């Protein structure tokens, strides 16, 4: 018997039981779709983040405190890096700029008669705002009541903000401070890539006069501003060495070391660390979701095997007829294996577009550019076919072993 | 019918008149159901080429077992069976399947057509397993359906056909590979008397055209259509009766 005839028989059998076949492949569809969803979503996120870092943040080193048992980017947001630390880090060989980052506790922002709550207000220095990420205007000036906003915030009010717009910062204690918008940006070079990814409305203000967190510097013996995080812009050709020098400073001489709790580790992480970290997280989640997908595929395979066993029983007489007119055991076997493979293929052919659709939705929801993962799609279809074949082997073997005399008597 | 006649006659000439189509040599068949049951006990029977033989016997006499052994659906516990010179009783399972497909045509009491296949596809089924091309299969199947008077029913599925039409499709299927032997198990058992007569007329025509036929029945008037009647009781051949027509 040639394969084409086997396929024709299989197609006819599947079409004769449309509902049953559809329900049978649901497990495969879910398995394939979940794997494809995460594969494409993961690829999209990865492409987006690597793009972000690659663009302008290649030489960035992020200095912050982290719980000592954490390998990643969990941050302890205590203001421990003093102005003394900032000055010392600026002096390290290969450092282009050391940008402090602190957050200002503002309860809301008012423009005209409209108030916007829940905006992230960051205190930093003017160098954080680069020409490359500036959409309009210029950076703020240190010491002046000037601010820069990101595009999300600029478009967040009924009337779009422009350079020269006046805003009022409302503090939790009731104080109000009028400020002038000098620029609109789509990111700063001080930001962790992950905060760029979140795309919240943001406002950036100069440390002087807006940032108020102050501690006594153990080395200088005077009260100084202190920040939870410093972003170092380094020469990308010697980022590794610069990073090592910073870590040495943090471990030995930094005020931050004395000001931090003993279980806080002070770290300097580079953009490539960040890519590794994100890739690692994505890989772990991908493995987890693939695990779920595999379970789903196993359930799907059992479903196919179950339906095939029922089908073999139902078609016992047909098997007897085919054997009587010359079908060999391997002909019977291939008829059922082809049918099971067809069910697996149908499942994956439905699962792939479903997974792409959901992956696309997830990418849109997370505001990342949708990226395809062609290897995964090819793999998924292949897996679907293989799952079908594996699921069909035992029922097909049972079918092939049926005794034609018994089968012909079967009602 | 003329087509079948030509091919069957050629086979006779080539193989020589002396070699019978079926040789059953001291065949026994035992089953183990609770205790040991002997279905056939050293049966010896020869079907000459072109002969028309009826087997009669009460139920449980062993006539179905004999048919299954000759048809290669089963293997004997002892003894030998050869069909068209091929030792079917010692052949492997695959070889027996091939012999069933090319040398033997089955006609069953309950027709045993594939419910989802059209008449032409049912008739072509034995050729599928003999690796014929699709075009050749269809050509042959249409030819055979026309021979049994169903040229206008080729694309109907069994459900859309009457009992008599279904049995004629089954006969066309049995004839599809030009078999050396036609085995019929109560072919009129599931059709009314008139239709049964039509079916038997077809067997007469096939016989006249030179085909070798073995028919199992429990009806005397059906058996009398054959050259001779083999009576089986308790797994043994009781008597062989030549009918008037032989």
UniProtKB/TrEMBL annotation, chain A:
Indicate the segments forming the MacB-like periplasmic core domain, all copies: 21-248
Respond yes or no to whether keyword Secreted is given for this record.
Answer: no
Cellular-component GO terms for this entry: plasma membrane
- Chain ranges of the ABC3 transporter permease C-terminal domain: 292-404
| Stretches that traverse the bilayer | 21-43, 288-312, 332-356, 376-397
State a single Gene Ontology molecular function: transmembrane transporter activity
Kindly state which keywords UniProt assigns to this record, in alphabetical order: Cell membrane, Membrane, Transmembrane, Transmembrane helix
Its topology with respect to the membrane? Multi-pass membrane protein
One Pfam family matching this protein: FtsX
Q: Which InterPro entries match?
A: ABC3_permease_C, MacB_PCD, Macrolide_Exporter_MacB
Q: Which domain of life is it from?
A: Archaea
Q: Where in the cell is it found?
A: Cell membrane
Keyword Transmembrane helix on entry: yes
The family this protein is said to belong to = Belongs to the ABC-4 integral membrane protein family.
Q: What protein does this entry describe?
A: ABC transporter permease
User: What is the scientific name of the source organism?
Assistant: Halonotius pteroides
From TrEMBL, chain B:
How is this protein named in the record? ABC transporter ATP-binding protein
Keywords for this entry? ATP-binding, Nucleotide-binding, Transport
| Gene Ontology CC entries for this record | membrane protein complex; plasma membrane
Q: Which residues cross the membrane?
A: none
Give all residue intervals belonging to the ABC transporter domain: 22-246
Q: Origin organism of this chain? A: Halonotius pteroides
SUPFAM superfamilies per the UniProt record, alphabetical: P-loop containing nucleoside triphosphate hydrolases
What are the protein's GO molecular function terms? ATP binding; ATP hydrolysis activity; transmembrane transporter activity
- An example Pfam family from this entry, by short name, is ABC_tran
